[in-house]
């Protein structure tokens, strides 16, 4: 019998890692000024965050198979709350950095455990629909986060942001303690030897690598915008505030893609067809960005690139681990570790290309090739 979960709470937990980062982002200048460090040093709090996040994904995913989903979620959220309080009282920048690393490690539960719980409770088309709903929520969270973060920083400074995040984490810990059910279907506890064996099985599985590289490709398509766009806006004579408003374009694109995906799944269109269609949309839009890059009209095809992300990712995530249901928590952690490392590598490679349009064409082409091979496999 499947355990009932409150979908709205699951969506909130899934949004939380992305939401807290967008709330935190406007605080960077305040942090640099308060601790008298350079902007580059302040940005270390973001780059180290993603490394610790990847480690948190593997740790909490394995723990969810060992101690259960509910306990792992509560401990992870508690870790994040403690880290936020630590950042609030940290007297030096170095300690703030340590707090950020601990926070990233803890908040990784919001991604890996939520996905694991959804895979416990839902399967097939139903699971794809749930991931589509989460995709819509994720498209909204950056806009809300940036707005709240900006207001909080302007009124209370970076200390207000840390306090706000700690209170939010406390709310989620309490809510999880009283309302989050255990969705793990078996009482068996996974061993280290079993995790190692699972890792060997997964990392020699070609389909896992296809799905992981697909996840990487779409994330590079999305996050490369944040790397290149500020310079594109500057070269067109616009300041940083105008660039900030472009986040609305990304949110609209993500919402359109996620909503379109949800409708298509409801009409019985297969996940593989949607993945291939989104890859072709991304490639076509990438060429349009390449042509329009000298004007602000490039934002229109960027919107479609982001929409392709909203279509593809829910279907990729819902299909990737269907063969690993017996240890889906650990499998999700190992899969997450793989694609987070690949995302880091992909973003590094994109920085070497020095051209936004070229990056989009390259990684959308990779997505097309893999989507075709995925269709042939099935």
Task: Give a quick set of tags describing it.
mainly alpha; 15 helices; 84% helix; 378 residues
Helices and strands, with pairings:
Elements: H1 7-24, H2 28-34, H3 39-66, H4 69-89, H5 93-107, H6 109-121, H7 124-179, H8 192-203, H9 206-235, H10 240-245, H11 247-266, H12 271-292, H13 299-319, H14 328-353, H15 356-377
Helix pairs in contact: 1-6, 1-7, 2-3, 3-4, 3-5, 3-6, 3-14, 4-5, 4-6, 4-7, 6-14, 7-11, 7-13, 8-14, 9-13, 9-14, 9-15, 11-13, 12-13, 12-15
In words, what does this structure look like?
There is one protein chain. The chain has 378 residues and is mostly helical. 84% of the residues lie in helices and 0% in strands. The protein is built from 15 helices and no strands. It is globular.
Gyration radius (Cα, Å) is 20 Å
Secondary-structure-based class equals: mainly alpha
The total beta strand count reads 0
In percent, how helical is the residue content? over 70%
Binned strand content = under 5%
Report the span from N to C terminus. Answer: 29 Å
State the major sheet.
none
Number of helices: 15
Instruction: Calculate the mean pLDDT score and round it.
Output: 81
Detail the poorly predicted runs. Answer: none
The outline comes out as globular
Secondary-structure element series: HHHHHHHHHHHHHHH
